[in-house]
Amino acid sequence: MINLEKVKSKKSMQELLEFGIINIDKPSGPTSFNVSDFVRNKLKVRKTSHFGTLDPKVTGVLPVAINRGCKFTGYFLGEDKEYVGVMRIHEDTPIEDIKKAIKQKFTGKIIQLPPVKSRVKREEREREVKKFELLEKEGKDILFRVECAGGTYIRKLISDLGDYMKIGAHMLELRRTRAGIFNEDDIKYPSVNLYDFEKAVDEYEKGNEELLRRIVIPAEIIINLHPVVEVKNESIKQLLTGKPVYRRDLKKEVELEKGSLACIFSEEQFIEIARVVDEKNVFAKPEFVLQPIKI
């Protein structure tokens, strides 16, 4: 079992910034790209990449990857999201009637047509809404919570609900509270607002890395998404050249579903993300190999 805190403790600040993630609490106003760019400029790193776009007015969890951590963007994007928001219905309607409509039409597998202003092609897509709860109603304003698959448009969900009930509805406020394994109130890695992020970087530039070290998440946190497979120390050299993971490389025999992903480690050293092929003596083939970080 890989101890993420132990992995982190052995890394220098420079190593964390070379292969890390920061769970930013995005404010209302800037775009997700603006926030990612702000992190890049403030840290003076080569590149940053956010995990999942939030509309400018939407607040909340926006994980931002740093340098080589950006290679993981695609692995995190499709993960489930959770939101809390306020919708306004245009005609006052009993909350029980709205709950009934949600149960009938807006939970489970649904079909969505992306909004007109979205960047993706406007074609119907299947999405999954796992929970759609109405928490409180005051006049025409309703506090709600949604847990859904990545790629679900919450603003469109609210609009479609209003259309379905023939009462009209639009979203007033929205906050993302979870994006995959990143949570706004995670005990170890809660989201950090831009003010506290700036303060941490300023302290780091003065020689005090304590605050920044606390908020930078090692990109090895991907082990919370995909299983860890350990290989022998003598196999590291060839695996770092991009060669397949052979069964003879494994520390112990392991069976994973063909096509699934695995995090390849040697003791506490992350080697690569590999896709299981299970062909003859080949266990998996690499998709991303982390070359040794030279600082």
Protein model, in words:
- The protein has 295 residues and is an alpha+beta fold.
- It folds into three domains: 4-77 and 181-221, 2-Layer Sandwich (Pseudouridine synthase), CATH 3.30.2350; 81-179, Alpha-Beta Plaits (2-Layer Sandwich), CATH 3.30.70; 226-289, Roll (Archaeosine Trna-guanine Transglycosylase, Chain: A, domain 4), CATH 2.30.130.10.
- It is 25% helix and 35% strand.
- Strands 1, 2, 3, 4, 5, 6, 7, 8, 9, 10 and 11 form an eleven-stranded mixed β-sheet that branches.
- Strand 8 and strand 9 (182-183) form a beta hairpin.
- The longest helix has 12 residues, at 32-43.
- 32% of the residues are buried.
- The model has no long low-confidence stretch (mean pLDDT 93).
Percent strand equals: 35-45%
Ends: how far apart? 27 Å
Please summarize the sheet with the most strands.
11 strands, mixed
The CATH homologous superfamily name of the largest domain equals Pseudouridine synthase
Overall average residue pLDDT = 93
Structural class category = alpha+beta
CATH topology of the largest domain: Pseudouridine synthase
Counted by DSSP, the helix tally is 9
Order of helices and strands: HHEHEEHEHEEEHEEEHHEEHEEEE
Please give the CATH architecture of the largest domain: 2-Layer Sandwich
Key terms for this structure?
alpha+beta, Pseudouridine synthase, Alpha-Beta Plaits, Archaeosine Trna-guanine Transglycosylase, Chain: A, domain 4, 11-stranded mixed sheet, 5-stranded mixed sheet, 25% helix, globular
